[in-house]
Amino acid sequence: MADKIAQVSKKDETDKTKKPAVKAAADKKEVAPKADKAKAPAASKVAKAPAAKKEAVAKTPAPKKEAAAKASVKKETAAKTPAEKKPDAKVVAAKTEPKKAAAPKAAPSKPVPAKSALKAPKQAKTPGPKRVWVSDGTVRGRLKARFESEVVPTLLKELNYKNVNEVPRLNKIVLNMRIGDIKDNSKSIQAAQKELDAIAGQRSVIVKAKKSVANFKLRENQPIGIKVTLRGAKMYEFFDKLVAIALPRVRDFRGVNPKSFDGRGNYALGVKEQIIFPEISYETVEKIRGFDVCVVTTAKNDADAKALLIKLGMPFKA
Length: 318
What we know:
Layout: H1 2-59, H2 61-105, H3 112-125, E1 132-133, E2 139-140, H4 142-158, E3 170-178, H5 188-200, E4 205-208, E5 223-230, H6 232-246, E6 267-271, E7 291-297, H7 302-312
């Protein structure tokens, strides 16, 4: 009996202890639905919110599409308008260009014409070639200046030419020196070349033999002479030096031969000594050498060529 009572009491205690747990569980069950109810509205709001956004999104594209359509229409109009406006830009540019060109016309007060007017008389004051004094007393360019100012008008009247270009003129002067002692001394051509270069004022050219001649002890391509061709200012300078300085220094000089014309208006004379020119020093001369001078003119006959050379100062025999 005692055991049964103890078991009953234990059951009561367990039931008591279980009742609060059951109550707590029941309370929890009651609270849980409340919490679910409280959360339910939030969930419903969340569920509703995307739907509202979707509706808003579904509503908004319509105005955007309209804006896009308007933008496309504007682009099409903009693409069409530049082609129509291009000629307008060209017209505007064409209108502005004459204005720029007209700007210099509106400045007549500049001193440019006054300067040009001052330069003109300066050019008129210095006609002909420049004259430079040389140590030997001659003047460079004086013969050419005298030919243009004095000789041409006088020949035009005396020879009855209708045109100034018909008046004969100097074309060129050729100097030719033959070296016969080159077979004995091969270095003699170098000394002769230096002397002829000094006389002519121009670099000379060595002439070589075209054939071999046993009697003259001459081989092919052997240097046998020197030549120089003068034109322009150097030609006039050499002629002036020959006539005014070199020929008067010849011993017993009585004039040059008037019959040395070739029938075509060209004159040739021979110089026996190169020391008559002021460029050659007698102390440094290795050997006395002579050379030929050929004056080529534009004259059609010997009479016109002789008249030209007389006016230039060539001393012919009487």
